[in-house]
Amino acid sequence: MDYVKLINCMRCGMCLPACPTYKETFLETASPRGRVALVRKLQEGELDQSARLLEYLSLCIDCQACASSCPCGVNAGELVAEFTCERKAEDRLSFMEDLVLRKLLPHPDRLEAAIVPMRLYQRIGLQKLVRTLGILKMFPKPLDRMEGLLTDLPERPLRQVIQADMPARGAVRGTIGFFLGCVMSLIFSDASRATIKLLTLLGYRVITPKNQVCCGAPNMLSGDLAGLKDAARKNVNIFGGFDLDFIVTDCGGCGAELKKYSHHLNEPSVASFSNKVRDISQVLTMHADELKAILTPLPLKVTYHDPCHIAHCQGIRKQPRELLNLVPGLKYTELENADACCGGGGTYNIEKPQMADLILRRKLDTIRATGAEVLVTGNPGCLLQLKKGLMDHLPQVKIMHLTELLAKSIGV
Ligand code: SF4
Ligand code: SF4
Fold first, then answer.
1. End of a domain among 284, 305, 331?
2. What CATH number should be reported for the domain holding residue 327?
3. What does the mean pLDDT of the chain come to?
């Protein structure tokens, strides 16, 4: 860990109001400033790695809202993640971590096979029965929460059915490599299908390599830096085999991780890969005039939630709003604290359910206040977390990925 990053904190406290865990606890140890101080003292050997101290650090959701508000460029979330990686580098992965991070995620075929029983569970009506009878209340809480997040799965994962090389419609403008995130392929396939349609409509040939692997974000979240580097090398090699103008993703979490590959691997091919990565909203806004000409009226009240991985990690805020405001008839209302975390945070919702629920509650209150009929966002973690929250507390509000809404307006 770069010690200089730790001593850059001047303890001003400007990050405190942005931190979701501080807002819920008012504890210094659950604030960015406190976490930087804890990691610094650990590095200096003045503190031991007690269970309580590690618990405080693990409460960080890695939303990186602190980085957006820090005048000194300190990123407490990233420092905590780096500390966790260094600490875990000395340990062996647990059985479950090894299974998920090394045996499943780097192998799309196995991952897809693993989800088949869940699809069957939904198709034969078992999910409805289990939920109606509240059977999972008798099982450990994490299982109940995981099941609660399980939304309707598509017939087949998009990776299995998508054409690997989609020609541009009309004159060819360029070639895009599409990074299809695992959750987008397995769960939100309609959104990624819409993304590819929009890109081909705008004149891009879209190549979706079927052998691409998980971006490695779950490895990083679990402190498995070696697993992340393996994923990065594989993806850089795979996409490096094509002559691409951009590498595009519609998954905020994947985009943030892909752009950071060069942070972990100091190799020219990795830097060239990361430099080409774009969130879909960045590419679509480059063609705002052409989009405007084909968008048709959608008389909907809409608001937008900024995923942390898009707003804080990639600094993308104006593009999704610009795109929404292109849609004729759409009434856009800004969400208060739109870039505040929703509480999803990868597996945070399962591991820290109480804190995740408190964070989610704040987000739902602000959504309610807009009176919106549709909440738009751009990250599968947020889609899962907010879909469940809306279903339970604001069922009148629908949630859509940005590209789904745009495709709906175009009628494709
Ligand atoms: S992390 Fe940044 S904003 Fe927070 S106390 Fe330190 S210098 Fe101030
Ligand atoms: S990453 Fe988020 S939760 Fe962690 S310290 Fe920063 S603002 Fe707080």
1. 284
2. 3.40.50
3. 92
Give me the CATH number covering residue 72: 1.10.1060.10
Ligand 1 within 6 A of CB of 7: no
Tokens of 100: 């998920």
Q: Is the CB of 181 under 6 A from ligand 1?
A: no
Query: Among 89, 106, 126, where does a domain finish?
Result: 89
Q: Give me ligand 2 centre to Cα 239, in Å.
A: 32
Task: Give me the pLDDT at residue 172, please.
Answer: 94
CA of 380 to the centre of ligand 2 (A): 20
206-215: per-residue pLDDT in tens? 999 999 999 9
Higher pLDDT: 51 or 286? It is 286
Number of folded domains that form the chain: 4
With 0.85 as the threshold, say if the pTM is over it: yes
For the four alpha carbons of 295, 298, 301 and 303, in that order, the dihedral sign comes to: negative
Instruction: Give the residue numbers spanning the domain of 381.
Output: 293-410
Which amino acid residue places its CA nearest to atom 7 of ligand 1? 9
Instruction: Centre a 10 Å sphere on the Cβ of residue 201 and count the other Cβ atoms it contains.
Output: 18
- Find, among 405, 407, 323, 326, the residue nearest to 372 by Cα: 405
16 Cα: distance to centroid of ligand 1 (angstroms)? 8
Contact assessment for residue 292 and residue 349, using Cβ atoms and an 8 Å cutoff: no
- Do 25 and 113 fall into the same domain? no
pLDDT digits (tens, 9 = 90+) for 321-347: 999 999 999 999 999 999 999 999 888
Question: Do 275 and 167 share a domain, yes or no?
Answer: yes
d(CA 75, CA 253): 17
Binding site membership of 66 for ligand 2 (Cβ less than 6 Å): yes
What pLDDT is stored for residue 137 in this prediction? Answer: 67
